[in-house]
Each structure stands twice: as C-alpha cells, then as structure tokens.
Write a structure and sequence with these properties.
Protein name: Potassium voltage-gated channel interacting protein 3
Strand content: under 5%
Largest sheet: 2 strands, antiparallel
Family: Belongs to the recoverin family.
Number of strands: 4
CATH class of one domain: Mainly Alpha
CATH superfamily of one domain: EF-hand
Keywords: Calcium, Cell membrane, Ion channel, Ion transport, Membrane, Metal-binding, Potassium, Potassium channel, Potassium transport, Repeat, Transport, Voltage-gated channel
Subcellular location: Cell membrane
Number of helices: 13
GO molecular function: calcium ion binding; DNA-binding transcription repressor activity, RNA polymerase II-specific; potassium channel activity; potassium channel regulator activity; RNA polymerase II cis-regulatory region sequence-specific DNA binding
Length: 238
C-alpha cells in the first residue's frame, strides 16, 4: 500500500502524520549546519584548528560571542558546517530553498524559504554572511520574547517599510501552510490562513489604519496567549 501523508505505509488504518508541532519546533537550519559539521577524523575537533578557521572571518570569534548567545564551541561547530556547505562564505536563496525542500518534501517550501531568506539577508544584497546567519539564529533560538517578536515582525514585513499589511501577513501564513499545512494534525483547511489573518489583524491593528506597527505587533502578541502560541509556532519553523 502507498505511504500516507506522514510517509508511513498504511494498513488500511489512518495514521497520525509525523509533521506535528513538536517536530516543527526543531531548527532545520541548525540540523543542516551541524550535519556538515560532524567531525571527519581524530584531529577534526582540534579547537586551535577551528579557531584559526573562524579567525578568517571578517568578524572574529570573540566579537561574535559578544553579539550572540552561542558559546565558542557552538560557534566553531556552526562555522565548520557553514564552511563545508558554503565554501564561499555566503549562503544564497537557492540554498535555503534546497534545505527546506529536504525537510518538508511533501509540501512546497519555495515561497517560505524566499521570505525566510529575506529576513536573514539584512544587507538586502542577495546573500547571507556567516555573521548574519548566526546572529539571526541566536535571536530565534535563545533571544528574549521581545527579541523574537522583533525578528518575527521583520519576517512578516515583507517590503521592509516598517509596517505589516494584511496582504503581507496572509502571504507569510499561506507560505507556511503550503510548506506543512496539509500534514499537520488535525488537517488544516484551505481557508485557514485567511481566517487566521483576519482574526490576528483585527486584534493587532488597534487604531484601525489598515497596517500593524512594531509596537502594535509586540503589545498584542504579549497580551494574547493564543496569538503568542501561534506566532511562536510559525516563528520556529526555521
């Protein structure tokens, strides 16, 4: 019998798909990096060797430690994997699309990968340096609630004009549902993204001017547990 949506062979009985909320909370980007950072031999974990490679970066290891919440060893591991996957020292958008299509093979991750890449690409030059990559990861994995919400706002603010429109919020939500919506439990209806956006936007747009500011976004998310849990789910699909 053909595998079901969760990728398991069926026995005539419906089985719960594997893409649960818990599974989505695992960081795809970290898994991708650390898979390439696995030690290749007895000398590959030599900290002096790793330190010398990290020092070839424009910003030194100590500076990155100060800017992030990663330890020196964590930064070394992340850089080892980053260097193996991206010898040029830069990640492009196609790489993001490849990563997410591997982790979400049953969905279409192309649009979400595009939006996520733009959120990491702080210089807006079409490539992400190691420094920008780990600073973003540090916020998402270990930042305060406010720092994470600031990052999430930047993701939803697609054109980076300092406001979130209903169309922008819907575009992000739809891209997430396209990537994993059909394989969540319970199954998500096609009109669910629009319903979510309507509900969120009504609560967030406090002065009814048709856009959500960073202050409205953070204040509403912190006061509303339902929105906060939803935002955290989406913000953790990294």
């Amino acid at each position: 019998m053909e595998p079901g949506p969760g990728g398991q062979k069926g026995s005539g009985k419906w089985q719960r798909p594997r893409f649960t909320r818990k599974a989505l909370m695992r960081c795809c980007l970290v898994k991708w990096i650390l898979a390439s950072a696995a030690p290749q031999g007895p000398d590959s974990s030599d900290s002096d060797l790793e330190l010398s490679t990290v020092r070839h970066q424009p910003e030194g290891l100590e500076q990155l430690q100060a800017q992030t919440k990663f330890t020196k060893k964590e930064l070394q591991s992340l850089y080892r994997g980053f260097k193996n996957e991206c010898p040029s020292g830069l990640v492009d958008e196609e790489t993001f699309k490849t990563i997410y299509s591997q982790f979400f093979p049953q969905g279409d991750a192309t649009t979400y990968a595009h939006f996520l890449f733009n959120a990491f690409d702080v210089d807006r030059n079409g490539s992400i340096r190691f420094e920008d990559f780990v600073i973003g990861l540090s916020v998402l994995l270990r930042g305060s609630v406010t720092e994470k919400l600031n990052w999430a706002f930047n993701l939803y603010d697609i054109n980076k004009d300092g406001y979130i429109t209903k169309e922008e919020m819907l575009a992000i939500m739809k891209s997430i549902y396209d990537m994993m919506g059909r394989y969540t439990y319970p199954t998500v209806r096609d009109d669910a993204p629009s319903e979510h956006v309507e509900k969120f936007f009504q609560k967030m747009d406090r002065n009814r001017d048709g856009v959500v500011t960073i202050d409205e976004f953070i204040e509403t998310c912190q006061k509303d547990e339902n929105i906060m849990s939803s935002m955290q789910l989406f913000e953790n699909v990294i």
